[in-house]
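Customer ticket, subject: "Can you confirm the structure for Chitooligosaccharide deacetylase?"

Message body: Hello, I'm evaluating your service for our small team and ran a test protein. I'd like someone to confirm that this is what the system normally returns, since I don't have a reference to compare against.
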Amino acid sequence: MFDLTLSFDNGPEPTVTPQVLDSLRARGLRSTFFTIGRKLAVPAGAALARQAYEEGHWIGNHTWSHGTPLGELAETGHSSGEILDTQAAIGELAHPLRLFRPFGGGGHLDRRLLNAEAVRTLRAGGFTCVLWNAVPRDWADPEGWCETALRQIAERPWTLLVLHDLPTGAMAHLDRFLDAAAAAGARFRQDFPPDCVPIRGGEVVGDLSGMVMG
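Agent reply: Thanks for trying us out. I re-ran your input and got the following:
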């Protein structure tokens, strides 16, 4: 048996997120949706985030635009705006720990993730930075990601998996993945492996070396 925490990035998407919620609800599973701020500014996106929240999922911050990794932003105020504007859009749906996930530019855990301004903003705002330890690249391999994910979750005792509720066709295979993971011995949980949380409630509790530009 092994532990598996599910997370979904880059939504909400009206053509995909409802299907994801249906799949999770049917199995009594709870996840975290790391949302894009600009998508919450659209009524349909805001409604989906609220639905997810009301069904017991956690709502996290995944920057406003998801355009450039924060570590590559040099203009003063840009990184803090990406974080704080999205948090304002999340509003009352926010988790008490103010969950934030940086944009890894394809799942990379490197100096692209953050810059000094972003770290200051997260610390001052009492945010919790949530990373990951498995990315099956479902957006690039919408047909074959399930097998990749199953291999990844078998490699460690506790996996924090990143999936994407995006209109790529990948989430058409979510039911198959969830059932296969359960059959393989996955114990689904909603919290995060400690080594994937370098900042918790504004306090640095893990190693940020190699993840901050400048």
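A couple of notes from the result: The chain has a mean pLDDT of 97. Residues 2-213 form a domain with the TIM Barrel fold (CATH 3.20.20.370). Feel free to reply with more questions.
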